Amino acid sequence: xxxxxxxxxxxxxxxxxxxxxxxxxxxxxxxxxxxxxxxxxxxxxxxxxxxxxxxxxxxxxxxxxxxxxxxxxxxxxxxxxxxxxxxxxxxxxxxxxxxxxxxxxxxxxxxxxxxxxxxxxxxxxxxxxxxxxxxxxxxxxxxxxxxxxxxxxxxxxxxxxxxxxxxxxxxxxxxxxxxxxxxxxxxxxxxxxxxxxxxxxxxxxxxxxxxxxxxxxxxxxxxxxxxxxxxxxxxxxxxxxxxxxxxxxxxxxxxxxxxxxxxxxxxxxxxxxxxxxxxxxxxxxxxxxxxxxxxxxxxxxxxxxxxxxxxxxxxxxxxxxxxxxxxxxxxxxxxxxxxxxxxxxxxxxxxxxxxxxxxxxxxxxxxxxxxxxxxxxxxxxxxxxxxxxxxxxxxxxxxxxxxxxxxxxxxxxxxxxxxxxxxxxxxxxxxxxxxxxxxxxxxxxxxxxxxxxxxx
Length: 456
Ligand code: HEM
Known about the structure:
Blueprint: E1 13-14, H1 32-42, E2 43-44, E3 52-57, H2 59-72, H3 78-82, H4 99-102, E4 113-114, E5 122-123, E6 126-128, E7 131-133, H5 153-177, H6 182-209, H7 211-217, E8 218-222, E9 228-232, E10 245-246, H8 247-252, E11 264-268, E12 271-274, E13 310-312, E14 318-319, H9 335-345, H10 351-358, H11 378-390, H12 397-413, H13 418-421, H14 441-448
Parallel strand pairs: 1-10, 2-14
Antiparallel strand pairs: 3-13, 4-5, 6-7, 8-9, 11-12
Helix pairs in contact: 1-9, 2-5, 5-6, 5-14, 6-7, 6-12
Bound molecules: protoporphyrin IX containing FE (HEM).
């Protein structure tokens, strides 16, 4: 949690707004009473239909969580990192490379790979009833690149889908090449990574930040040679040597996802559960999937006419379940309070100060109660901004820019991304619309897990 504040810093974490680095808006202890009042006002009881966000199907909440884990996951050995106590060297840059799925590869982590299929280049899956679970050891712990992707049943089923995506594109690559080699594996891996990157940069981000900002940040222009290439245009996200994760992103803006969580989900037509229930018998993670509990994806993404369940609006309300986190007690079980205190501990500037630095429209104090006048915690401000300016349908100017610039900045900084290597690339897997540029998460699932894209 020690985030260096000097301007020259260029490591694992950094700041988007360096000039505000000394303008910490809050003190984690002195402002505790204010944080408690804000957190209390944020608790929602039940899921009234008016709090649903029709623009954002429920599955995107967990795609968002999956993305967070992917870019913050670091499989570099702890020993190596310990030699770099201040984290000044970025051993592994944040990338959309699915390393949470691939781990460090078939040679280093063969236990994640299926040695009976394609010479051990396919990823391992665990059949349960009519669906699949993550591979697990005999004590139920998931054998995957990033254990956080077993934190709840939905993100765990999404991880299964990404494993299956690799296997599906590997099947095709092997068939086309007529053999299985390390090169064919790498080609399939790249294919899976690029389609995932496309879904994040287009389908997910457009829903999250709105059409206007998305069009301003990511453009596809035809060059003099008649080829359409994509390019990003960013105002704030810059890096010197290595790309970094801004604290304004990980400690404030990207935690928008907490307000999208529903108290209860339809996982399939016959299985409805709370994600976390103090009484147990819920869809929490870190446990083997039971037969009949695998996800029917039309409940989560746009896959049929009936349509999915919606996520909750991006607003200043969080479901009750996030105020009694499993394994936590007292203040530690209260996710809203934790986010507010974490922001103060990291010396975040207020939402108003960031809006000022961006020169965008600022919310009035009246909209931000019970926060103290003139200095609302950044995370709370960003949620209020989405609520007041866009009815909770998508992020506002401050939150949208922080999230959009960080995600696209990381994609541009990755020398292996489609945007860097082949900005004219378009998805090649099939799409329901027939337009490759509209390739979506629903299309990705149709290739990866065809049995789970039908409603059951
Ligand atoms: C099922 C629901 C979820 C639970 C129970 C949960 C719980 C937590 C907890 C306990 C923390 C650490 C808080 C702290 O002490 O600082 C955290 C951090 C975080 N959460 Fe969530 N979360 C959930 C969903 C999400 C979603 C959907 C997103 C985004 C779309 C998200 C984004 C983040 C981010 C960015 C952090 C900061 C740490 C990091 O970089 O990984 N979370 N979450």
